Amino acid sequence: PTPCQLQAEQAFLRAVRSLISNSSTPPTLSSVYIPQC
């Protein structure tokens, strides 16, 4: 994988964890942001 893909994966995992921990709040596009590689 390229560094960009690795960075996108880490950002995605953080977004998933934040959505799980804040399940009471609706997901937003910014929290599920995926960089264009």
From TrEMBL:
<protein>
    <submittedName>
        <fullName>Thyroglobulin</fullName>
    </submittedName>
</protein>
